[in-house]
């Protein structure tokens, strides 16, 4: 997604305010603009069917405009600069793009950004407690649950989703819950160990 | 990027059906686990520039049940299906199949209606639903019709769904399956996120060594999920023996070969099919 579009997210939010009503105020405002003079950019946006999107990302309310074909992962990475979430296979097989959507782990490369309207998203960045690592992140560091580390944000988010559902998971629940995330370095034994360590620490 | 330039998210079935009627060429999307990768690969099946997202329609996620039937909203995600006690208790083979679909992340998004209407040869929910004798409710802006799942599935990635219709309910009649036990078997190249190479769903009723009823359906080894009623009927009310199971498997293998034709993989798949299914059938029927 281009960052050069007429209304940047920041200016947009400044202009509209961060209230829930924001998304409802803007749509008619856009349509009114259609009758008036539009800048080239605005005209393009109208033609491409841009829509207003309001969602919560890592606890923060976000209101922005997106093209309907924007994937959620592209919104997170390109627009919101949350590049911890990785795009690897881009077809819902590897788990690198795993995020938490309304409390459940999902692949963010397999859903449209507009589908997240009104929903709550947590990314790997949202796990940080200030400067401090989340116990899950710390467990992956301590237990050496990674080699190259590229799949790790996805692994941690899948583990986070798993622990939300089963705070004290059995071995089978861990294997099942983590099976949607591939690791080319095959660090699986230590990934499992990290998840177990985190579960006992959080408990 | 994808050519999608219109996106609608109706809140009710009737609103969705009206939008569909209005646009004609719109693509319905629910979980998106098939359609988004489809758009990504520029699949010929995903060319519509208008999307109607039925994921926010609460009616489509309802489960209604009484003594005689269970009606599953087509927009029910596999995760929700799995956490439903009624499904686990009454539709065990469906729960077994669903638990092995994709991964947690996929099951949290993918819907049962999407799995059926995409009609991939390897759709894991299809063989158990065929064995359960599922019916479907299809809704358009001005009408509703009920069809048998087996009639609905035409050929690979092709169904009887009309352009203005939405698959709204999966209906399972409980009165004929109360006494049936069953099992589901899936063979994939790995355990997680595996595309099925062979699926087999079976329901049976036996007592005193007699097979009173038998139903079975396969997936992935035929162009679409398929139930074999003609073979089922032959073995109804027969005495259960090893020889009987072997002749059944032989008949099934011949039928699969007849439908799918000889392929480069047949040399491998056919013995795998016969050995695995015979092992499971013997385990369940002879014990």
Describe the protein.
With 203 residues, chain A is of the alpha+beta class. In chain A, 41% of the residues lie in helices and 12% in strands. Chain A is built from 8 helices and 5 strands, in the order αααββαβββαααα. In chain A, α5 (135-142) packs across α8 (188-202) and α6 crosses α7. Chain A starts with 8 loop residues before the first helix and ends with a helix. Chain B is α+β, with helices and mostly antiparallel strands and 287 residues long. In chain B, the strands form 4 sheets. A 5-stranded antiparallel sheet of chain B has the order 4-5-10-6-7, with helices on both faces. In chain B, strands 11, 12, 13, 14 and 15 form a 5-stranded antiparallel sheet that branches. Chain B has a 3-stranded parallel sheet with strand order 1-3-2, with helices on one face. In chain B, α11 packs antiparallel against α12. The longest helix of chain B is centred in the C-terminal third of the chain and has 21 residues, at 266-286. Classes of the chains: A alpha+beta (203), B alpha+beta (287). The A-B interface holds A 47-49, 51, 67-69, 71, 90-93, 95, 98, 101, 104-107, 109-112, 114-115, 117, 158, 161-162, 176-177, 179-182 and B 1-7, 9, 29, 31-33, 36-37, 39-41, 51, 53, 55, 79, 102-106, 108-109, 191-193.
Q: Note poorly predicted spans of chain A.
A: 1-7, 12-29
Give the topology string of chain B: H per helix, E per strand: EHEHEEEHHHHHHEEHEEEEEEEHEHH
Terminal CA distance of chain B = 56 Å
What does the overall shape of chain B look like? Answer: globular
The biggest sheet of chain A amounts to: 5 strands, mixed
Please state the second-level CATH architecture of the largest domain in chain B.
Answer: 2-Layer Sandwich
Annotation keywords:
heterodimer, A: about 200 residues, alpha+beta, five-stranded mixed β-sheet, about 40% helix, elongated, disordered N terminus, B: about 290 residues, Uridine Diphospho-n-acetylenolpyruvylglucosamine Reductase, domain 2, Uridine Diphospho-n-acetylenolpyruvylglucosamine Reductase, domain 3, Enolase-like, domain 1, five-stranded antiparallel β-sheet, 15 strands, about 35% helix
């Amino acid at each position: 997604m281009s960052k050069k579009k007429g209304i940047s997210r920041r200016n947009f939010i400044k202009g509209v305010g961060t209230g829930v009503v924001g998304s409802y105020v803007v749509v008619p405002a856009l349509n009114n603009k259609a009758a008036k003079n539009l800048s080239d950019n605005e005209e393009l946006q109208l033609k491409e069917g841009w829509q207003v999107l309001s969602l919560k990302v890592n606890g923060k309310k976000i209101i922005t405009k997106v093209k309907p074909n924007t994937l959620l992962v592209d919104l997170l990475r390109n627009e919101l600069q949350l590049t911890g979430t990785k795009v690897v296979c881009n077809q819902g097989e590897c788990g690198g793009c795993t995020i938490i959507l309304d409390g459940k782990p999902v692949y963010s490369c397999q859903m449209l950004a507009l589908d997240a309207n009104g929903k709550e998203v947590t990314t790997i960045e949202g796990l940080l407690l200030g400067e401090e690592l989340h116990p899950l992140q710390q467990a992956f560091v301590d237990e050496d649950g990674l080699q190259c580390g590229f799949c790790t944000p996805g692994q941690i988010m899948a583990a986070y989703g798993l622990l939300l559902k089963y705070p004290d998971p059995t071995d089978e629940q861990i294997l099942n819950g983590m099976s949607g995330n591939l690791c080319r370095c095959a660090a699986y034994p230590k990934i499992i160990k990290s998840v177990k360590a985190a579960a006992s620490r959080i408990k | 990027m994808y050519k999608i330039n219109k996106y609608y998210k109706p809140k009710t079935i009737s609103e969705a059906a009206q939008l569909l009627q209005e646009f004609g060429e719109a693509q319905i999307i629910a979980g998106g686990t098939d359609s988004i990768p489809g758009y990504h690969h520029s699949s010929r099946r995903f060319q519509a520039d208008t999307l109607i997202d039925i994921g926010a329609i609460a009616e489509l996620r309802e489960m209604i049940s009484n003594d005689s039937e269970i009606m599953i909203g087509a927009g029910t995600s596999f995760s929700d299906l799995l956490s439903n006690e009624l499904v686990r208790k009454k539709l065990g083979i469906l729960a077994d199949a669903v638990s092995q679909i994709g991964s947690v992340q996929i099951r949290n998004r993918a819907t049962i209606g999407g799995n059926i209407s995409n009609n991939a040869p390897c759709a894991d929910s299809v063989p158990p639903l065929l064995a359960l004798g599922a019916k479907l409710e299809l809704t358009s802006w001005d009408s509703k019709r009920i069809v048998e799942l087996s009639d609905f599935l035409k050929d690979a990635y092709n169904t009887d769904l009309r352009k203005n219709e939405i698959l709204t309910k999966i209906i399972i009649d409980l009165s004929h399956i109360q006494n049936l036990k069953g099992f589901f078997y899936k063979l994939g190249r790995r355990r997680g996120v595996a595309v099925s190479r062979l699926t087999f769903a079976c329901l049976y009723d036996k007592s005193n060594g007699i097979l009173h009823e038998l139903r079975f359906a396969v997936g992935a080894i035929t162009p679409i999920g398929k139930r074999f009623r003609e073979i089922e009927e032959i073995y109804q009310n027969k005495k259960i023996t090893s020889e009987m199971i072997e002749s059944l498997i032989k008949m099934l293998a011949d039928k699969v070969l007849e439908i799918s034709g000889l392929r480069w993989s047949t040399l491998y798949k056919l013995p795998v099919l016969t050995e695995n299914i015979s092992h499971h059938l013997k385990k369940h029927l002879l014990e």
